Amino acid sequence: MDWTEVCVTVATQDTDRAADIANMVVPYGLYIEDYSDVEAGAREIAHIDLIDEELLKKDRSRSLIHLYISPEANPLEAVAFLRERYTAEGIGHELLTSQVSEADWANNWKKYFKPLPVGERLLIRPTWETAENPDGRAVLSIDPGMAFGTGGHDTTRLVLETLEQYIHPDTALLDVGCGSGILSIAALLLGARSAVGVDIDPLAVKTARENGLLNGFDQPRLTILEGDLVDKISGRYQVVAANIVADAIIALSPAIPAFLEPGGVYIVSGIIDTREQEVRDALASCGFAVIQRREHGGWLCMVCRKG
Length: 307
Fold this sequence. Notes:
With 307 residues, this protein is of the alpha/beta class. The chain has 2 domains: 4-108, Alpha-Beta Plaits (2-Layer Sandwich); 149-306, 3-Layer(aba) Sandwich (Rossmann fold). The chain is 32% helix and 30% strand. It is built from 10 helices and 14 strands. It has helices at 15-25, 38-46, 53-56, 75-89, 102-108, 154-166, 182-189, 202-214, 246-252, 276-285, and strands spanning 4-11, 31-34, 62-69, 93-98, 116-118, 122-126, 138-142, 172-176, 194-199, 222-226, 237-243, 260-272, 288-296, 299-306. Strand 8 (172-176), helix 7 (182-189) and strand 9 form a beta-alpha-beta unit. Helix 1 runs antiparallel to helix 4 and helix 9 (246-252) runs parallel beside helix 10. It starts with a strand and ends with a strand.
């Protein structure tokens, strides 16, 4: 198989945050080049004092994060996700790919994206596939294009499964960082009254609107806005979902109570398990209590309610 190498260059002070985001794409590991402290590292890790002159010439101000993506993991979606999240987090970056051009990805990865049952009631179907549906599930047709959200990633699937428990006929949903629109569309297919999605990436906004139309949803029932977190949002919602990253959830959470109906739930996902306590502390400081916790593949989804 042809694997795609993605190399992300960031300032050294952003390495840890950028690596956390990259880990959402390839949870099996990263290769990071960081020469900011090469002398101390050589002594403490390799136990040597003599350092190759080429290493000493390396740029100390920037780190390179390498990740390798198999075609069935959808390199197109992975790169779109990285661009969107780094931009949203304010992380300056350069992103290069090798082996397979971006134009080729749009065709190569599709053969690996097959209809996917999720939870008890949903069936995710790529637009180019037919799907048998003996269980009578609600079929969500999707073409993620350049946006994150096919339903295959653990973080997205955890939220989709969780939505089944909290969507009712009178539910209005707010989806922050909507990507392909998959969560908003799923909520409507599960019976929600309305859904509003927002994303900072104009390509994601375009894709989400197109996916809404594919499933028969448009304004006023489905509204997709371009904006940063909740700066374009008004009104109150029974369910607010944020499948983003830990730092964005921490930054977003203080604003959420103003958009929640009394008794409403705030569903957060995209959290690496090593950052659980940090996110919990931030949620608690905003008055949220975690009432449900789901985990898969090292990723967490938590359901919160105002205490």
